[in-house]
Design a protein that fits this description.
It is built from 13 helices and 37 strands. It has 758 residues and is of the alpha+beta class. Helix content is 18%, strand content 44%.
Amino acid sequence: MYINKLVGLILLLCITRAWAIEPFIVKDIRVEGIQRTDPGAVFSYLPVKVGDTMDNQQGAAAIHALYATGFFKDVRLKVDHGVLIVQVVERPTIASIDIVGTKEFPKKQLIESMKYAGLAEAKIFDKGALEKATQELKRQYIARGKYDVQVASTVTELPRNRVSIVFNVVEGEVARIKEINLIGNHVYPESQLLDLMKLSTPGWFAWFSSNDQYSKQKLSADLETLRSFYMDNGYLEFNIDSTQVSITPDKKDIYITINMTEGAKYTVSGVSVSGDTLIPKAEIEKLVQVKAGDTFSRKAMTETSKKIGERLGQEGYAFANVNAIPEIDKVKHQVAFNFVVDPGQRVYIHRINISGNNKTRDEVIRREFRQTEGEWFDVEKIKKSKQRVDKLNFFSDVNIETPQVQGTSDQVDVNMSVKEKSTGSISVGAGFSSGEGLILTGSVSQSNLFGTGNFLSTQINTGKINQVYSVSYTNPYFTDDGVSRGFDLYKRNSDSKSTAVSQYSSHTLGAGVRFGVPISEDQTISYGLSAENTQLGLFSSSPTRLIQYVNVAGAKSNSLLGTIGWGRNSLDSAIYTTSGSLQRATAEVSLPVFNLRYYKVDYLQQWFHPLSDDLTLMLHGEAGIAGGYSGDELPFFKNFYAGGPGSVRGYDSNSLGPRDSTDQVLGGSRRVLAGAEVLMPFPGMGKERSVRLSGFIDGGAVYGQGDLPGSAGMRYSAGVAFTWISPVGPLKFSYALPINKQPQDRLQKFQFTLGSVF
């Protein structure tokens, strides 16, 4: 900076000395040497016009003004009988920019970033911009941990006053964190504190998360994590004294040192509430998360202020301010808090604005809102609106902000921003067993058809065992008040010769219509009617029970099926579920119009509960019962089955339950499934929502008639599962080991599903 100023001062002194003439009246102005620059532009920058008196001071000002345009690398003034002659040499233009040796970044991305430094094709070449572009290249590599990067530029002159620029990049190796040292920790061991941090030394998962590469932003986040940990465990006076980051001379290893002071552990001596609470003080006091005698926790104090603010937000006070005023006793290591409540002014909603929905129609999102324009602000309605939009599962991210309307004190806008994700999928399921080999299934679906929120699914399975051709269409808002309507058309062919299931074939053709009626915010009643035609085929190896059924009921059957169901969904998210529950009860009855008379009842429940910020417990259970009526028995092709993905992992698909004398699975009229699963982020991935790891225990059984042999009783398994919502679709893997397997059980320890989105 100082060198540039010195050069400029010397240049001006030289110009002033060179322009030493007697004052004269300018009769005309002539510009020489321009090729690209418009003469009119030169005249507009000159501070002197025809008829003016020209002297040394004006000459210096003219030269300075033309240099300042950046168009010229040399400017000279001459006088010829009262004519001012301006001689210029234009700066060259940039004909091309190329980067050689880059692998870490796409070349196009790097060239695009140079525009911010003022370097781009067809622009006037500026050495200052070239230096800025060089530094910008280095900065991008350093941000990726490549501190040893070397960037050299070559400028080649071309005809017609042009230049080409080539950047030669030697990327070097990524610098890794060699060691992280914590100094000053006495209460907690270093290993426990390092586990809290995102930055780490190279390990098993570092290649996946890049957490062994230093980042100033990551370090700042880790320091705040340490501070929060101590503050949430009573250490009110905890402080980060200093941090040092050093790199070895070869720029390959980084050392981080964090100096801290833990301080004493504080307890809460008392809590009080004051201010204008507007609602009964006793109700506010119930929201307080701490009491006298508790260990101080900044998290609990923040949560208390948040809950009080949200409670006032339900009454329209969007800008309620709740401050926890501490009174510290450093001798006794105690602290008392007074929550001072200032509700502010009551506000109402001015406008609801939605952004980011390039494909999804506005009305699809707006119909999920429970907060309306012109209504008093209600924080619960806004949270419910966000939750309902999230549960559409059309978006990977949903955010809501409530800024105050400028110029008003009693109005806010609701700004929702969404990030759309692919809602069409081509999915493939696969498993492997010694009996069946590789098993494949597939389907194509679009859950947001043309951005309308309507669902369309087509399943085509041309496998050896099962052939399925089906089309389903659902309009979730058939009526404005949320009644849904759907249609189903399907054809199913099954040949169980090479499976564990009893040997028979079936060909079913069916069609139906269904409706869903919301009865509350989270509950829906559904009902439908469908017709089916089924044709059975038996083999010489078919079980006796199947042959007896066909002899009595016939190989062909028609049925008119009535269904009714109830569902309750209070899950907090369809993207990353951490709390809430899902309940569903369904009943299917074959109406006594045709020759089939049976019923099936099934109940399912899932329950999610957060165990900590990172761990979520999921419990699930399912129970089903079926049978015939009016003297008929349950058709064997309507039996329940269990085993495999979706029921009891670790066992072969549909292998649990009664079997015949030839060890073929018959299915049963009763089924029980249960399980527990602990969901967690994948190690090294932090709060990444697309990846989850889990440990699970599954259990289940299928029961039939009492005299049937086979895999009787409950079966259990335990294992681990991995789920990744990848850019190409959802991937799910599980590995399970049976806990109480019997000799006749068939196992399938590894299962996975994969998909591709469009």
